[in-house]
Write a structure and sequence with these properties.
Layout lengths: L2 E6 L4 H11 L3 E5 L11 H15 L6 H14 L4 E3 L9 H14 L3 E4 L10 H7 L4 E3 L7 H13 L5 E3 L7 H10 L3 E4 L6 H10 L4 E2 L9 H11 L3 H16 L2
Parallel strand pairs: 1-2, 2-3, 4-5, 5-6, 6-7, 7-8
Protein name: Amidohydrolase-related domain-containing protein
Organism: Amycolatopsis thermoflava
Keywords: Lyase
Length: about 250
């Protein structure tokens, strides 16, 4: 089974399904999203969509309910293709975050993708405290900082029961991300939108049992993302694990 471990709701969802079919992907972990860059046909339209992302990173709750409804609808319409992860508002008081995690855990297979403001990865702690063995995915590229990655590592060690996934191979801090995952048994590494081919090769070589193929669609594309994993992974056993076996184990499929 091929599993894309990182994707966002598309508008319309049929565009996403076509991409998955082209890539030969059986299932995709699906996160809610407020911006929809796939809607943009011009640079100005893209800037408008990405302004929504800037607002959400600044802590605005506007559009969260609509994004969660989109996620509900996509997973309900295609339960054979999508594995939904629920979102929580990191800016709420800790008790409210814990309640939201508990509610999400009854409905979804995990929590994510969570994106704390830069320098505030500590906001993840109430989520991890409440998550138990529910997987949690945290945004690993900018605006995450090197200090944020260090905080994520410390929190993973503090809550060893919770599988914690660093997405986007840690962005520009990919070396530190690989080292953290290699040294921390409950940390996982997702590979989407990596900027360097050899960073993907090294990640798989170092932690083949906790590295996940992902596309970050619509920001990325599952076709070249899968091809990259296959290109840099000579071992058939490791390739099968990264392309789906590891994600199936993480999700309990």
């Amino acid at each position: 089974m091929i599993i894309d471990a990182h994707s966002h709701v598309h508008d319309p969802v049929e565009k996403h399904l076509a991409l998955l079919d082209e890539a030969g992907v059986d299932k995709a972990i699906l996160f809610a999203t407020r911006p929809h860059p796939e809607r943009a046909a011009t640079l100005d339209e893209l800037k408008g969509e990405m302004a929504v992302l800037s607002q959400s990173l600044a802590g605005s709750g506007e559009g969260r309910a609509a994004a969660l409804r989109e996620l509900d609808d996509a997973v309900a319409a295609h339960p054979d293709r999508f594995v939904g992860f629920g979102s929580v508002d990191l800016m709420r008081p800790g008790a409210e975050v814990a309640a939201a995690v508990e509610e999400a855990g009854r409905k979804w297979r995990g929590i994510g993708e969570l994106t704390p403001p830069p320098g505030r990865a500590d906001l993840l702690e109430p989520v991890l405290r409440a998550a138990g063995d529910l997987p949690v995915v945290v945004h690993g590229a900018a605006p995450a900082t090197a200090a944020d990655l260090a905080t994520i590592g410390a929190l993973a060690r503090k809550y060893p029961r919770t599988p914690l996934v660093i997405s986007q191979l840690g962005g520009e801090h990919w070396i530190a991300a690989i080292e953290l995952v290699r040294e921390t048994p409950n940390l996982w590494l997702e590979l989407s939108t990596a900027s360097l081919v050899f960073s993907v090769r090294l990640a798989i070589a170092e932690v083949p049992d906790r590295t996940l193929f992902g596309s970050d669609a619509p920001y990325g594309d599952p076709v070249p993302a899968r091809a990259l994993v296959e290109r840099v992974t000579p071992s058939e056993t490791a390739r099968a694990a990264v392309l789906g076996g590891n994600a199936a184990r993480l999700l309990g499929l």
